[in-house]
C-alpha cells in the first residue's frame, strides 16, 4: 500500500486495473477502506465523474497522518459540487457502522489496499523499518494501547515464538524468541534487527533478504490486529454491495491473500449439499461472481518503477443481481 511521503512520490499499486474494475461499478457510493494518501481514491473519483458526471466516496483510514494527506490530495475534489467525499478516521472493519451512521444503502464498490504503506516504512519514528533506527512502535493508529516494544519486552518466550510462527511462518521462531528475551530490554528497531540477525543461523542469513523481515511483519500484524480486522470485514463487504457492486482487494502476503481468496470463493459458492443428495436441500445460491479468477500481479515494468509493489496480489468480485442485499 505505498503512499506519498515528503521524500517519495505517491505510487498507487495496480492503479489502472483498480480504476478499470471500480469505475465500471454501478452509480453510487464507493468505499475506500484504506484511503491512505488517496492516490487510488483520486483516480477513482476522476473516472467516476467521467462515467456518471458525479462521484461519491467514503474514505476510511486509522492513521490521522494518512487522512491529512488524503485531504490534501483530494482538495480540489472537496470543492467540486459534483463530488461528495466523506473522510473518517477508523479501522476498515468499522465500515458497516460508518455506513449506518451515514444512512447509506448498499454501496456500488469497496476497495481495500492492505498492509503497510511507504509512509510507515519511510518514517523512522513510526518504528516499522528494521533498516532505520526508531522506537519499537509499529502502530498504524498511534492511539492503540500496545506497541511492538510492549510485545518484544513483555511477552513470555513461548508466546513470542508462537506469534512469530503464526503471523510470519518464521522457521527460527524459537531461536529468535529466546534471543529476544535474553537481550531485553530492547528499545529500538535496529537493536531488535541485530538480535534477530544474530539468532538466525549463518547459512540462512545468506539468502532470502534481511533475517528480521518476518519478525517485523509478525509484530506489525499483531500490534495492529490486521488479520482480525480483515476476517471481520470480508463478509461485510460482500453483504453491503448493491446488485452489480464490485469489491477489489490488494493483499501483500499469503496470510492476507488466503483470507480474501476463501471469502470470495465462499460468496461465489452455490449449493453445499452432499454430492450424493439427489435434490438440493440447502437452497443456497451464489451471492457473487469472481471478476478475477486468479490473483493478478503488477507488471515487470511497474515493479521496476516501484519495487514495493512486487508482492501485490489483486482479487475482485461482483455482487450478483439476483442475490439478497443488506437492507
Describe this structure in a few short sentences:
This protein is of the alpha/beta class and 327 residues long. The protein is built from 15 helices and 7 strands.
What is this structure's SSE topology?
Elements: H1 15-23, E1 29-32, H2 39-52, E2 55-61, H3 64-73, H4 75-78, E3 83-89, H5 95-102, E4 107-113, H6 118-122, H7 148-154, H8 157-168, H9 173-183, H10 189-199, H11 202-205, H12 213-224, H13 226-240, E5 241-251, H14 254-267, E6 288-290, H15 300-305, E7 313-319
Parallel strand pairs: 1-2, 1-4, 2-3, 4-5
Antiparallel strand pairs: 5-7, 6-7
What radius of gyration results from the CA coordinates? 21 Å
Q: Any idea what the shape is?
A: globular
Strand and helix order: HEHEHHEHEHHHHHHHHEHEHE
Tally of contiguous helical segments: 15
What is the CATH topology of the largest domain?
Answer: Rossmann fold
Strand content: 5-15%
CATH C-level name of the largest domain: Alpha Beta
Q: Mean pLDDT, nearest integer?
A: 91
Into how many domains do the coordinates divide?
2
Briefly note the structural class of the backbone: alpha/beta
Helix content: 40-55%
Number of strands: 7
Low-pLDDT stretches are 1-9
Q: How do the strands line up in the largest sheet?
A: 3-2-1-4-5-7-6
Instruction: Measure the end-to-end span.
Output: 32 Å
The biggest beta sheet is recorded as: 7 strands, mixed
CATH superfamily of the largest domain: Vaccinia Virus protein VP39
